[in-house]
Amino acid sequence: MKNLFSDLGYEKNSICVDGSFFGKGIMQYQLVETTTKKLLYRSDLIPGGSNNIAEYLGLVYALHYVFKNEDNRTIYSDSYNGLTWFKNKQTNTSIEDLNIIDKLKKATDYRKKFSVISYGEWHKIDPEWDSFVKENPTLLGRDNKKLERHCIVKNQFLKWETKSWGEIPADFNRKK
Q: Residue of 20, 45, 55, 153 with fewest CB within 10 Å of its CB?
């Protein structure tokens, strides 16, 4: 059954993501339940980066979280850039720190393994293959590597409307 929307326009039974870039070049991201603000995950402090990168990494982690937990809740982020990078499976940053570039590459490679139905990526889905691999986790392919599922998520990844709804519940409250 689809979750009912609140009077404010967002889905109550959902997850919010926020990224933060603060101090002397430290970033972090977290996931919380929207209405209860229960912390679902908080990353370690990550040296370098930017706020957009933290938001993007948070969205990719949210994808991992909902897939691993078979959780179909809507995901909200207040970051237009983070959501754009997430949807396009491609980042756009001038950061030159090799550690951050490596994190972005790993996150983007992970994102590319998924089809997000709400983005119209349904044409890439082979449900029979996905079910077969899920039911046979120990099988190896011709190259002697583990078969990979074509990871499918039905979650919506939506923009949190701060002007209408206030600060996103996952906010770190680190703004000056």
A: 45
Q: What is the pLDDT of residues 17-51, one digit of tens each?
A: 999 999 788 999 999 999 999 999 999 999 999 99
Angle between helix 98-112 and 51-68 (nearest 10)? 40
Put simply, whether the predicted model's pTM sits higher than 0.70 gets the answer yes
Instruction: Report the candidate in 61, 57, 5, 60 with the shortest Cα–Cα distance to residue 34.
Output: 5
Q: Is 19 helix (H, G, I), strand (E, B) or coil?
A: strand
Look at residues 63, 172, 68 and name the one whose alpha carbon lies nearest to residue 117: 63
More confident: 84 or 175:
84
CA quadruple 57, 58, 62, 64: dihedral, nearest 10: 30
25: its two tokens: 């070049």
Q: Is 5 left (phi over 0), alpha (psi -120 to 50) or beta?
A: beta
Domains of the chain: 14-112+155-165 (3.30.420.10)
> What confidence tens digit (pLDDT) does each residue in 89-124 have?
999 999 999 999 999 999 998 888 887 877 766 555
- 80-88 helix and 51-68 helix, angle to the nearest 10 degrees: 60
